[in-house]
Amino acid sequence: MSGVQFDAAAIRELAKILRETDLTEIELVEKDSRIRVARQITVTQVAQLPAAAAPLAAAPAALVAPDPAVADAAHPGLITSPMVGVAYLSPEPGAAQFVTLGAKVAQGQTLMLIEAMKTFNQIRAPRAGTVTRILVDGGSPVEFGEPLMIIE
């Protein structure tokens, strides 16, 4: 990193904008320099019981259902977004989707596109398998690290 100088004030200002706007990532590009500031947001869900509810220990374990979002996040076949952009499941409007639920895919096969800064980026299968979940809709915005699809 010798010879590279960073503008600390610009980085602080970008971080401030992230906090104020609730964005997770922001990038500034000027001539030959580029500054990208990103933050990781951890979301925790807290269930609150009504005041008159019985203690949780009294409830049978079978009544407590696991949160599907938590299960998806821990799945070994989860594919997440490598960037902020807009997800497209087909190559163009009206065309068939790249993959559908239950489809067998090969390693390197295009699963979807993410448009970022007017550039369409192919999201490819990291391994062969079967598409068991598609977690985004075509044309929907996605964040960096957002779950896109599960391949088993």
From TrEMBL:
Annotated metabolic or biological route of this protein: Lipid metabolism; fatty acid biosynthesis
Pfam families: Biotin_lipoyl
Source domain of life: Bacteria
Keyword Lipid metabolism on entry: yes
CDD domains, per the entry: biotinyl_domain
Residue span, Lipoyl-binding domain: 76-152
Transmembrane regions listed in the UniProt entry: none
Keywords for the protein's UniProt record, in alphabetical order: Biotin, Fatty acid biosynthesis, Fatty acid metabolism, Lipid biosynthesis, Lipid metabolism
Record NCBIfam families: BCCP
PANTHER family (UniProt xref): OXALOACETATE DECARBOXYLASE ALPHA CHAIN (PTHR45266)
Function: This protein is a component of the acetyl coenzyme A carboxylase complex; first, biotin carboxylase catalyzes the carboxylation of the carrier protein and then the transcarboxylase transfers the carboxyl group to form malonyl-CoA.
Protein name, as recorded: Biotin carboxyl carrier protein of acetyl-CoA carboxylase
Gene: accB
